UniProtKB/TrEMBL annotation:
The lineage of its organism: Eukaryota, Viridiplantae, Streptophyta, Embryophyta, Tracheophyta. PANTHER family: HEAT REPEAT FAMILY PROTEIN, EXPRESSED (PTHR19316:SF21), PROTEIN FOLDING REGULATOR (PTHR19316). One of its GO terms (cellular component) is endoplasmic reticulum. One of its GO terms (molecular function) is adenyl-nucleotide exchange factor activity. It comes from Ananas comosus. Residues 349-370 are annotated as: Disordered. InterPro entries: ARM-like, ARM-type_fold, Hsp70_NEF-Inhibitors, Nucleotide_exch_fac_Fes1, TOG. This is Uncharacterized protein LOC109708785.
Amino acid sequence: MAGDGVKWDGLLKWSLSHSDGTRPPRNIREEDRRWFMEAMQAHAVDVVKRMREITMVMRTPEEVLEAQGVTPSDIEGMLDELHEHVEAIDMANDLHSVGGLVPLLGYLRNSNASIRGKAAEVVSTVVQNNPRSQQLVMEASGFEPLLLNFTSDPDITVRTKALGAISCLIRNYKAGTTAFRLANPYSGLRDALSSNNTRFQRKALNLIQYLVQENSSDCSVIAELGFPRLMIHLASSDDLEVREAALGGLLELARDGTAGNNIISTEKDQLSQLLQNRIDDIRSMSPDDLRAAREERQLVDSLWSICYNEPSVLRKEGLVVLSGEESFEMPPDVAGRFFEPPLRAWAAKAPPSNEGQVWPTEQRKRHHCV
């Protein structure tokens, strides 16, 4: 039966007919049960076996693969498949066990930009919310090629994906965060903020916000390097997520006593103009746009309150919390755990190890690093 192929449409209809709730349950004939089991077993995938096969390919020299007709597109497809497998956290850790982590990191240095980018995406998923894999990647010297790709790769997409992988690698992992700071990454982050790529900007802004939240000493460094001016500029971006990330970063800096006072004094005119422009734009938004800009409204009001020690016009006009919005705190994530791989969801709830700390689901979504 496996050789004939499975009629997936028929299999789906058969499944629905026995579980759609429109008819009372009935006993399944042995013939139907056997057909269903054979269909599923014929297409079951041994994930560990597939990861070993993919590892074998990744270990094979590039010239040998080329001689056998393997194209860069084939490699990209293979990495896409590997990406799906490592969504489950036990499979992500098994990648090292089957010998696949080191050759995957080797693809970060591949001559093909698309392959470098795909490899960074896989690394992001391997280390996300996974202290064990964060440690393994650092021990396998995976940080260095990621940093090199982030700071100097000629392809902006590769730089963006490398930054996403770095963000996942160091987040709530002390050794990774320390290595990142020692690498003096600020010129690369400044380049990202100055780029025209909104995704690159967002990832840099989110990482900056994480750094200043995690260590207040970064506030002064970032302020001294002129980041606030760039962030003020990006807070007027046409991209809502960029605006929110920039405003969030400015708010974190403003909350810091020394750095905040310096920003408010040195960038007073630009900051004042920014906030007034954002308030004017928000006041002119349609109801749908107002709902979409919920976080932006709260950030503008909070930043205004810190800078001028008074409520903003938005609060006075009831635009910080609209009618029907119970509060301006982020609502609890009651559904997210049902829409992510169950083992990774379990890992997000597990007690942190000595080095790593798992983020709550809501924070993980906001600071997603892929």
